[in-house]
Design brief:
Number of strands of chain B: 11
Radius of gyration of chain A: 13 Å
Strand order of the largest sheet of chain A: 5-1-6
Strand content of chain B: 25-35%
CATH architecture of chain B: 3-Layer(aba) Sandwich
Largest sheet of chain B: 5 strands, mixed, barrel
CATH class of chain B: Alpha Beta
Number of helices of chain B: 6
Structural class of chain A: alpha+beta
Number of helices of chain A: 3
Helix content of chain A: 40-55%
Largest sheet of chain A: 3 strands, antiparallel
Distance between the termini of chain B: 54 Å
Order of helices and strands of chain A: EEEEHEHHE
CATH topology of chain B: Rossmann fold
Largest interface: A-B, 15 and 20 residues
Shape of chain B: globular
Strand content of chain A: 25-35%
Oligomer: heterodimer
Helix content of chain B: 25-40%
CATH architecture of chain A: Alpha-Beta Complex
Structural class of chain B: alpha+beta
């Protein structure tokens, strides 16, 4: 599974948080510190496994919990049209 | 005979043609420097339009046009807000429709104890100067109140911005940075859904809307503004007085 940011978005990191605007829909989204880190890691197309491994190396969290949280987070981003997910 | 007028500046401009001399004269009187003279040769032909005698559609177009023009080329933005000037400082009162912008302005207009200048009860222009400070400007865009005489070309240093709410009591709350960013962006006219503009202006909205570069610049200037200017929430009722907030 490959994850990639939607290229049509405007975004800016301000005081540790990421503000993302979809100019077509005029929606404002805000990501917290961990969400911002994930956003930075998917700045280029990246596989789910590689992303998961990078997060495990950064955060002190068990793999099972991280897998669950990451999957939920990525689905949320996808539903909001902020990322594209494709098969490898 | 056709009469020509233009809006914009060096980088982004539109030319309009209208056959009614009086209509054009009225537009120039009302919008003052928001309409300017740009030689037709510098305006791309795709930006030539015939302007119908509809002041409302033209007003909508101008608001959208300057929203993009300011953030792309002038380090500024239009914000949904009422504003007043006092002693070289301006106080901005931002909020969506029905939040009380015109009500507050009426209160200020009745105030005889302070010499206040009225910027608008609907949309204020905010721009960063070379001194790195933000200044507010009067606009021809008024809401519930009629634009008073002699309010053109007013400019003041931005002192404070208040996000307003009608309430049973008068009080002020400090707000954190995150909420400030959200409230500012929410009230910048650039983000009005395209559906709000009917008929021919819809096309113009689309033209400006899907523009990532403009939105990125807007985020950048909004961040600078929020770091420079003190932001609060203001709850007010009809007994509110300017003296409660002045420096």
């Amino acid at each position: 599974m490959l994850i990639e940011k939607n290229k049509n978005l405007a975004f800016r990191k301000i005081e540790g948080k990421l503000y993302i605007i979809d100019p077509k829909k005029s929606y404002l989204h805000c990501l917290d510190e961990i969400g911002t880190k994930i956003w930075e890691l998917i700045s280029k197309k990246i596989s789910y496994v590689k992303l998961l491994n990078k997060l495990i190396s950064i955060y002190d969290i068990d793999e099972l919990t991280l897998k669950k949280d990451l999957s939920e987070f990525l689905m949320e981003l996808k539903n909001k049209n902020l990322i594209n997910i494709s098969n490898e | 005979m056709e009469y020509i007028f233009s809006i914009g500046g060096e980088y982004l401009s539109f030319r309009f043609v209208n056959k009614d001399k009086n209509f054009l004269k009225n537009l120039k009187n009302y919008y003052n420097k928001f309409i300017c003279k740009i030689p037709s040769r510098v305006i791309p032909k795709q930006n030539f339009y015939s302007q119908q005698n509809n002041i409302y559609s033209f007003d909508s177009f101008l608001r959208i046009f300057y929203s993009r023009y300011l953030c792309e080329y002038k380090k500024g933005f239009l914000i949904h807000a009422a504003g007043i000037g006092y002693n070289n400082f301006s106080y901005i009162f931002s909020g969506e429709s029905e939040s009380g912008k015109s009500t507050l302005m009426k209160i200020f207009m009745k105030d005889r104890t302070n010499k206040l200048y009225y910027l608008s009860d609907e949309i204020i222009l905010i721009k960063k100067h070379k001194d790195n400070n933000f200044y507010s400007y009067s606009t021809p865009f008024w809401g519930g109140l009629k634009k008073p005489q002699n309010v053109e070309n007013l400019s003041f240093y931005v002192s404070k911005i208040f996000f307003i709410n009608k309430s049973s009591e008068n009080y002020i709350e400090e707000i954190n940075f995150d909420e400030t960013i959200r409230l500012i962006l929410k009230n910048i006219i650039f983000f009005h859904p395209a559906d709000n503009y009917s008929n021919k202006e819809t096309n113009f909205v689309g033209l400006f809307w899907n523009n990532k570069v403009s939105v990125n610049k807007l985020l950048e200037i909004t961040q600078e503004f929020c770091m420079k200017v003190k932001c609060y929430k203001l709850f007010f009722n009809k007994s509110f007085k300017f003296n409660l907030i002045k420096l």
